[in-house]
Amino acid sequence: MSLQDEIAKVAHELYEKSGRIGGRDMENWIEAERIVMERHKGQKKTSSKAGAKKTETKKAETKKAAAPKTTVRAKKTK
Is residue 71 part of a domain? Predict the structure, then answer.
């Protein structure tokens, strides 16, 4: 669903909830925009955190794989 379609749907829901009062089209639309943008803002934060966590994990895995392997050798005794 496009952003505009989502806003229109929410605006219509607001119209219905307010008892179908006419002449409040602009108020309903502006309130619907605010509601929809808040929803998307919350989703972005959530997906950003998940993406950041994946990035951190990838970085750690890459560092671990790139780290030189050290070998401990026992000294020969005579």
Answer: no
45 close to 32: Cβ distance less than 8 angstroms: no
Rounded Cα distance between 25 and 10, Å, is 12
The boundaries of the domain holding residue 9 are: 3-66
Number of domains forming the structure of the chain = 1
48-73 tens-digit pLDDT? 666 666 666 666 665 665 655 555 56
Indicate the pTM of the whole model. 0.56
| Any domain includes 58 | yes
Distance between CA atoms of residues 26 and 29, nearest Å: 5
Q: For the chain, give percent helix, strand, coil, nearest 5.
A: 75, 0, 25
